[in-house]
Amino acid sequence: xxxxxxxxxxxxxxxxxxxxxxxxxxxxxxxxxxxxxxxxxxxxxxxxxxxxxxxxxxxxxxxxxxxxxxxxxxxxxxxxxxxxxxxxxxxxxxxxxxxxxxxxxxxxxxxxxxxxxxxxxxxxxxxxxxxxxxxxxxxxxxxxxxxxxxxxxxxxxxxxxxxxxxxxxxxxxxxxxxxxxxxxxxxxxxxxxxxxxxxxxxxxxxxxxxxxxxxxxxxxxxxxxxxxxxxxxxxxxxxxxxxxxxxxxxxxxxxxxxxxxxxxxxxxxxxxxxxxxxxxxxxxxxxxxxxxxxxxxxxxxxxxxxxxxxxxxxxxxxxxxxxxxxxx
Length: 328
What we know:
Blueprint: H1 2-17, H2 20-36, H3 43-69, H4 76-92, H5 98-123, H6 127-146, E1 151-152, H7 156-163, E2 165-166, E3 170-171, H8 172-190, H9 192-202, H10 204-209, H11 214-240, E4 242-243, H12 251-261, H13 273-293, H14 297-327
Antiparallel strand pairs: 1-4, 2-3
Helix pairs in contact: 2-13, 3-8, 3-9, 3-11, 3-12, 3-13, 4-5, 4-6, 4-11, 5-6, 5-11, 7-11, 8-9, 12-13, 12-14
Organism: Clostridium fessum
Protein name: Ribose ABC transporter permease
GO molecular function, one term: transmembrane transporter activity
């Protein structure tokens, strides 16, 4: 019993000791925003921030696995838009039952991710290229299906998915987020699959010689990413009471930013779910703080771009320092 408690305590401690840099940034950011506006620490705003963070976290969890593999997925934002738009459309326009429409919307995202994974693994096409192509396809499907117009939905069950509360306190999107964080943390750190993901990203050839099923792992990871993006699209459509074909724009950048800020290496082989979660918090608080202060959304794009650039530069410098230490 004591051993189990000790292991759990060490796991919790490692979350903080392994992410001291990003946690420091998060604390400083919270203090600065709280001093800049008294609206930041209000209960309603905290709930709003948690909801905003949850959507990005769903996507960033899948992106973490993909970047650790040494790939990138630019299609996730478009899958968010496509899944949400089609799910709402299936209910409103085609009259499908809610459960069937939701399943169909998720499956479509899964298929998009599966296709990306199969092309990357079997044809060795760079993930950047195929996911960019899939991004255009998914965006096109969303716009063609909806005619470029948003589709409003009033079904109470569907709306509750993204706006409901657990025990009238915790927003359901936050509950989903916590569950997914636990599942993917376990998957990446406690299973053979997670070991394979790190092995492939760290040294693909060594992983192949060790008998790691590289193609299978890549297909699974891209499929998971598509499923998570589709789920994010479902929750977002529920929150907005509508399916909107333009809603996913920029979500892939926020997810990448969360991963890189959280310490996931763009070179592959390194990263952790806890870091990504803290990275998503930083991105969410920056967006929320800038909104509260009244900064234009156009300037927010510049800020996020600079954050990603700085994080990538720092990541590359870490790699250079590691090489220098090995040489010494």
